[in-house]
Specification:
Layout: E1 7-11, H1 16-27, E2 31-36, H2 39-50, E3 57-60, H3 66-80, E4 85-88, H4 103-131, E5 134-139, H5 152-171, E6 177-184, E7 187-188, E8 207-208, H6 209-220, E9 226-229, E10 232-233, E11 237-238, H7 239-248, H8 250-269
Helix pairs in contact: 1-2, 1-6, 3-4, 4-5, 7-8
């Protein structure tokens, strides 16, 4: 896939990774469609995109409305005369201890973070397979491979995204439609500071959203499937090796992290 000359739809583009990614794609020669709830924020991102890609446009939509999410994917396809890449980036957080989590909160988060990207992907998939080319990129999280304290619902959605993307890749072999999975680490975005979320138990050093966005743009044009962005966390920690280490001895990893979480809670309460 080449970004230059492509039509690319990016969800969650009013802030954070999506707002950084869309102008990068436009600068590299793509016509970009951007989607998010906040029309005023999207307008600013669209202005940046149109400096390089005048045909770029926006859709203001709540992707938690699954019918609307699906409709936006089709509207974007028709508006641009086809989509070459769908980047499913939109996500909301739910940082709260599982003992305080409600079923309604889990339902809402799964709709935005998992069901919405699936519905949008399935909406454009028949058109991509009929054409014999296209790419669907899922932005999951390191939280789709390893558990995060106080983020059971977010973990569930991001794990689901990983599983769906992996199986989708197998099913689409030979169709000409490619699948990418992106796993961001700690990125400096608004997701860390949202109403209704408790503070993170640990304050980790974060990477600028623009750095993550550049990694996603590179992934779109690369041959692989799974991408850790950034590949090295601040301090030089290898992101993939964290996941490999967990898989090699899952019980040991989880016991250690559970003890660490307990110690942090006790420290916060004292």
């Amino acid at each position: 896939m080449r970004i230059e000359g492509a039509n690319i739809l990016v969800t969650g583009a009013s802030s954070g990774i999506g707002a950084a990614l869309a102008p990068i794609l436009a600068e590299r020669g793509a016509t970009v469609g951007i989607v998010a709830r906040r029309a005023d924020r999207l307008a600013g991102v669209l202005e940046q995109c149109r400096e390089h890609a005048p045909r770029s446009r926006l859709w203001a939509a709540d992707l938690g409305d699954l019918d609307r999410a699906e409709a936006v994917a089709i509207e974007a396809w028709d508006a641009f005369g086809g989509l070459d890449v769908l980047v499913n980036n939109a996500a909301i957080p739910k940082r709260t201890r599982v003992t305080d989590l409600t079923a309604a909160e889990v339902h809402r988060l799964m709709d935005v973070d998992f069901h919405s990207p699936v519905r949008m992907a399935l909406a454009v998939l028949p058109r991509m397979t009929e054409r014999g080319e296209g790419q669907i990129t899922f932005v999951s999280s390191m939280g789709g491979r390893i558990p995060i304290m106080n983020e059971a619902a977010y973990n569930a959605a991001k794990y689901a995204v990983c599983g769906f993307a992996e199986a989708m890749l197998l099913d689409l072999a030979g169709t000409g439609v490619d699948v990418k999975l992106v796993l961001p680490g700690p990125i400096e975005t608004e997701i860390w500071d949202q109403p209704g979320n408790v503070p993170a138990l640990i304050d980790v050093e974060k990477v600028p959203a623009a750095m993550c966005a550049a990694g996603i743009a590179d992934a779109i044009e690369s041959d692989g499937f799974e991408y850790y962005v950034p590949p090295l966390f601040p301090g030089g920690i290898d992101a993939k090796q964290i996941v490999v280490g967990k898989a090699q001895n899952c019980d040991q990893y989880l016991r250690g992290m559970a003890q660490f979480a307990q110690a942090l809670r006790e420290q916060a309460a004292s």
